[in-house]
Amino acid sequence: MNNLIATLDVKRVLQGLYAIQHALHTMRKRWGAFLRKYPFVLWLLKALGLVTLVGAIAVTGFLMSIRYGAFGPLPSKADLEQISNPLAADVLAEDGTLLGRYFFEHRSNVPYKNISPHFVNALVATEDARYFHHNGVDLRAWARVAYKTILKKDESAGGGSTITQQLSKNLYPRRDYGEYSLVINKLKEVFIAIRLENLYSKEEILEMYLNTVPFSENTYGIKVASQRFFGVTPDSLNAEQAAVLVAMLKATTTYSPVANPEKSLERRNLVLGQMQKYGYLSETETDSLQKLPLNLRYSPLNHNEGVATHFREHLRLELKKILEDYRKPNGMAYNIYTDGLKIYTTIDPKMQRYAEQAMQEHMKQLQKDFLQAPQRCASLGKRHYFDFGDPSIAALSPNESRGFYSTTD
Asked: 379 vs 132, which has greater pLDDT?
């Protein structure tokens, strides 16, 4: 019985193969007859095939030219293994609190483990939802952007760049190649992104990205941004604060909570909506968070604000002289603006604030006394000598530098 069933199965398979062969033979005959009747179609097909072949060769050659440095060398594996960014120098008080920083780019690094999960979730949900599932290039996102941009004319569809590609752009800024700049730079970022993904874990790439990404006002990295806008450390950011900072990444000035609070709030709520869409927030949490105000604790840090500004400037000049006698392990000179130095001082920040407050209050009275001094001299109607040791005289103008003020009747 089993042999009979096997024989029938083989017979059916053979019949199926014969039917396919017959159909192909018939199709071939009909195609041949069609081409004999319309010979120009054959020439069109040959021309199309030739154009396709030439196009494929051209595209491959173009990609290889980028890959091997025709438009500037790509970073090697060794280069990518030694990535470094300019880091601000921290000036620390006696108790370890921050007095100020010296920097060209206001940046201070933070490890991935010290970054709030809310921020990572907000970033991935908004910028690269498939981040943990691609190798640096998201072809599905490219297809989505092409469909929305080209077919639906939706200019808000985004650019399709992954977080790794954005990191590539942050590490190696784009160059000008004329009208082909966008295409060439995008492709260079693709190659760099793939190399980064081969060298680093997803968490390490996120750490590098979050320490290099620019926010507004010469602020770089999540550590400085969280301190500047909310007065907290990166690991303390809550969901709504994280959403505000992620919102800024689309356009740092347009969505700055300081410069444009209304647009920032609108964009923040969009980010919160993305977090709900991808399961990082519940609908109830999203609704309640979207009703909250921005609640900024804005505290800009620059060279002319904060505690002990005059001391910090004097210290900066002293450090430049001191560092002339020291070298980094690679033999290069230290740079106080880019090498992330930690500078420990004996300043007591609490006593310094008291001293500066007392000085400001006393200067008000000194200035008042100084402004009243000419009237007192005029009432005497003669040259009046000022005792520079007199604490009631704060300062004299240049023509009074000899120690007296002269009036005439």
From this structure: 132
- How far is Cα 85 from Cα 75, in angstroms, rounded to an integer? 15
106 SS3 class: strand
Half-sphere exposure of 254 (CA within 13 A, CB side): 7
Q: What are phi and psi of 84, to 5 degrees?
A: -145, 150
First to last CA, the chain: 141
Query: Helix 239-248 to helix 283-290 angle, to the nearest 10 degrees?
Result: 70
Encode pLDDT of 258-295 as tens digits.
989 999 999 999 999 999 999 999 999 999 999 999 99
Provide the residue ranges of all domains of the chain, joining segments of one domain with +: 2-67, 80-344, 349-405
Burial class (CB in 10 A: 0-12, 13-18, 19+), 29: exposed
Phi and psi at 154, nearest 5°, equal -95, 105
For 322, the token pair is 């001191």
Bridge pairing between strands 219-220 and 106-107: parallel
170, 247, 294 from 215: Cα distances, Å: 12, 10, 17
For 349, the token pair is 């920040």
The answer to whether 174 and 72 have CB atoms below 8 angstroms apart is no
The DSSP H or E segment spanning 92 is: strand 89-92
CATH of domain 80-344: 1.10.3810.10
The 10s digit of each residue's pLDDT in 132-169 is 999 888 888 878 777 766 666 555 555 678 999 999 99
The DSSP result for 312-375, as a single string, is: HHHHHHHHHHHGGG-B-TTSPBP-TTTB--EEE----HHHHHHHHHHHHHHHHHHHHHHHHHHH
In terms of Cα–Cα distance, which of 82, 106, 108 is closest to 171? 82
The DSSP bridge pattern shows strands 106-107 and 98-102 to be unpaired
> How confident is the model over 169-191, as pLDDT tens digits?
988 888 888 888 888 998 999 99
pTM of the model: 0.69
Token reading at 120 = 């990572």
Which residue in 45, 215, 387 sits closest to 226, CA to CA?
A: 215
Q: Tell me, what DSSP letter sits at residue 134? A: S
Give 91's strand partners: 100, 343
Neighbours of 40 (CB within 10 A): 8
Are 66 and 184 contacting, i.e. CB atoms less than 8 angstroms apart? yes
Cβ–Cβ under 8 Å, residues 172 and 198: no
